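hiii, so i know i said id send this last week but things got crazy w the move. better late than never?? heres the sequnce for the chain we talked about at the cafe, plus the structure i predicted for it. fair warning i was half asleep when i ran it
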Amino acid sequence: MRLVTYRSTVEAAARLGAVVDDLVVDVEEVGKHAGVSLPSSMLDFIDLGPPALAALKKILNGGKDHWPVGAALPLANVRLLAPIPRPRKNIFGIGLNYVIATGTPEGVGARRSPQEWLWPGDVVEAEVTGIGRLRHPVVAI
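okay and structure toks below
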């Protein structure tokens, strides 16, 4: 599942959708149908946090026969927009191939004596509580 902001027609308001297979499912509509209050915008969805994501996953995992008629549109028939058209100052996004450079803290390999480096077979892990863990094995190229 991937969350997107979309428009079904040029005149339509921007809506929050979830891409499932080749369909864009209207988040607010499937929520109403399931008796769950879910928003129509990405910012409002972010504000609701992990409980909203869990509720949406549960609804979508229930199967397409539980979605209301008209709540899912073919991906090819909608226009995808910027995920957050007007972000607040306290929201930022990191896309593919972005790097956050924070400098070199004390204790890293280049500043040790003797120096230490990553070698094939080593594993680098980064974790954000509540979001997940990235695990990258070091390989020779």
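btw The mean pLDDT is 85. thought thatd interest u
miss u guys!!
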